[in-house]
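To: structure subgroup
Subject: Chain for Friday's discussion

All,

I'm putting the inputs and outputs inline so they're searchable in the archive.
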Amino acid sequence: MSAHTPPPSITPTPLPASATGSTHRGSRVSVHRVRLEHLAVELLRVSGALRLPVPVEALWQHPPQGLWDPQSENFALYPSRPGDDPYAGRWRIATAIANAVSGTAWVNKVHLMGAVPFNEADRQVFARALLVPTPLLSTLSERQKSPERIHNIFQVPLAEAKVRLEELGL
């Protein structure tokens, strides 16, 4: 490898075709999304939760390195409403984890993001990456990568499964 050749990417997350264009802003946004996804996978790795379906309920109750107080949120107070997606509760937990991790010293320690708290879009990306991590998604066959199958396999709301596949260009 020459001094001018960049090292190969170790990114487990493919960039969608729309992010590989020539616009600088689009590339910067995609790099930010990839960092959020890496952060989600790292959280799953250190907590031993990188398996299907991602056990966000247990992750919330047993945060790695004491990152948050599991008593700070009582998800039983958010009952399902008629017409709710059956996995809406898992989505609420994943977004709560995103809120809890946002801006912590741990985020700085793993050198993936700065100390700036996540904005709403960041929390959504992080929560989707937490529930549908790319390393687990990559183990599926192409036939299994439909929104309906992702919804069932990963136990994620159907709307979020659709957005996740769009984010990844699948």
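Points worth raising on Friday:
The two ends are 31 Å apart (CA to CA).
Residues 24-167 form one domain.

D.
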